[in-house]
Amino acid sequence: MKKLFLLCLMVAVCCLSFSYKKVLAHPLDFTVLQLGCHSAGSTMESVPHILVIGGIQGDEPGGFSAAALLGTHYEFKNGYVTIIPNLNFFSIVNRNRGSFGDMNRKFAKISRNDPDYRAVRRVQELIRSPEVDLILNLHDGSGFYSPIYVNEMQNPKRWGNSVIIDQEEFKDIPFGNLGEIGRRVVAKVNENLLEKGHSYHLKNTETAKGDKEMEKSLTWFALGQGKPAFGIEATKNVNTPGRVYYHLHAIEAFFEEAGIEFSRDFSLTIEGIGEALNTDIYLGFMDDRLILPLDDIKTSQIGVFPMRKNYGVKGNSPILTALAEKNMMQVYYGNNRLTNFKVEWLECDTSLESMEIEIDGNVYDAKFGDMLFAEEYVKILPQKGYRLNAIGAVVGNGPRGDESGIKIYKKDFQKRFSLDKKGNQYRLEVYCGAKYTGTFVLNYVQELPENPVYSPLE
């Protein structure tokens, strides 16, 4: 089961809830996660600290997806890892390199009027942090870098599958032997290639010799602050799980160089990465009174949902969010718009936190937002002053405005009202008069899980 953020040390994530109109003026903020701990006998000052940045360019899903997995599926000890999975979040959801220009060319100089100004200044402060020892900036590059010309896709002008340094070494600082470290990392990644032609190489841009474009970059800025920095490029010639595969192999090689111990809860294979990215994905609204399971969500409009104006968004991946535009809500997972739904803006009643629910003969106390699992039926036990609307269900002798106290079977639902493509998930909405109270998502399954009532974002 995907954990939200089970960490030894965690920094609160930045708010992801913005209306669409506000986003146009103030791009989505990025998330900062600080993970890790130190072993017995060591101190915070004696253990390494790596800053990993993904999503500086919004059309490079390998980088920001790899960083997102670091924040949700890894645990660290004897070291700290600060992760920014979604630095240019506005460009990520808009599927472009940079909605306001290339953010990775704004680190030498940026106007206060630039919409990226606040994000660039904030990440510059993180780079300057005294505790940060090493910086990794994740990218997806075209083709395959090679120091010699092989063909159109494999030559010195390409960037894919390379470790980037700005100069061979930076003397008198930890990890300043950039070239040596980079070559060792390249060698480790090359032990795990998906195909023979995917070899990694070290690319030295020799920025100080007059590379005006690289002088504007994040890694060159970092070196100017006395912080060793590397770019990691995965090739765009493979799909997103393949890019994540190469990014994580390179990142783990850097962790080993720094002496950071780690574990992950998936296998570092294409299959394992695909499962980690696409299983147990949830997005919560209104303090989790509504939680949507997104693994198999319909890509077409999934209906009309009650929503309060200050709806708030929380997902179990930092590259999940939702944006409202007038009466429509768009749900995003990285570059992908997963689904959308119409919104009915209502007042919200928060005086009730849970209800008693009968599932296949047993009674459970369920909080709003919980997932319910049933083989046969579900029955919401009546609560004075509250009514149930089972969306898409036809029960009893016809519409009566309240389906509480009635056994509801899968056959009672019209499949077109399901949330998922298979037709197994349905909404149970509870109201107090005209005010919205909360939603349960009901899952009809072949076999009940050990716990038929599940809180996915706890």
Automatic annotation (TrEMBL):
Transmembrane portions of the chain: none
| Gene3D superfamilies reported in the protein's UniProt record | Zn peptidases
* Name of the protein in its database record: Deacylase
Sequence ranges assigned to domain Metallo-carboxypeptidase C-terminal in this UniProt record? 349-444
Q: Which UniProt keywords apply?
A: Signal
Alphabetized SUPFAM superfamilies for the sequence: Zn-dependent exopeptidases
**Domain annotation D,L-carboxypeptidase peptidase: ranges:** 43-273
What organism does the UniProt record list as the source? Taurinivorans muris
- Is this entry keyworded Transmembrane? no
